[in-house]
Write a structure and sequence with these properties.
single chain; alpha/beta; Rossmann fold; two-stranded antiparallel ribbon; 11 strands
Length: about 190
């Protein structure tokens, strides 16, 4: 059976997610319309500008249909701004989807000039992964039912709750496909 994962293509670096998925043998599709959500095994909400995500999605039925699909259990991974959308929190953007019990602080690691790369140990991945942090959010309150998969200086930077995965870093900006493989193998494929 072919695994089919969509990447929300409203803005952000969705092309790199799509290419990485294709490189690991997954059928990947750029998602721009609500009807494309049917027949997906999972979806990635990429980094970008979280406020713009909300504006664009609210101007069509894509936002509501995506939320409904996620509430029904569609596996999802949010990177950076995608994590902001999936988590809980105050301020911009509102409303958040609150699909994972993590409060996500927008630009928590600083502005663009504060971007950095750091080696990360990720549960289920056997050696260090280079995490790219660009205006990265902070996970400031992680609920007891959430599994923390990676930390940077004792702070959670990758976490999972059921079918929802979030990372404050950008795995698509490296040539290393192991986090994409992990998402497909441990979350998307487990849905069936």
């Amino acid at each position: 059976m072919v695994t089919r994962v969509g990447v929300l293509a409203v803005q952000g670096d969705f092309e790199r997610h799509v290419q990485t998925l294709r490189d690991i043998g997954v059928e990947a599709e750029e998602i721009r319309r609500s009807e494309q959500l049917k027949q997906l095994d999972g979806i990635i909400i990429p980094g970008g500008e979280s406020t713009t995500f909300r504006i664009v999605m609210d101007q069509s039925d894509l936002g509501e249909e995506l939320y409904n699909a996620l509430r029904r259990g569609l596996p999802v991974w949010g990177t950076c701004a995608g994590a902001i959308m999936l988590g809980k929190g105050q301020g911009i953007p509102q409303p958040r989807l609150s699909l994972i019990d993590v409060e996500v602080l927008r630009n928590g690691f600083g502005r663009q000039v504060d971007s950095f790369v750091a080696p990360l140990d990720i549960k289920g991945i056997d050696s260090s992964f280079q995490g790219v942090f660009i205006r990265a959010p902070r996970f400031i309150d992680v609920g007891a039912s959430v599994e923390v998969l990676s930390r940077y200086k004792d702070e959670a930077v990758m976490a999972r709750q059921g079918n929802v995965l979030i990372s404050s870093f950008h795995p698509e900006l490296t040539p290393d496909d192991r986090v994409h493989r992990w998402f497909v193998e441990h979350i998307v494929s487990k849905r069936h």
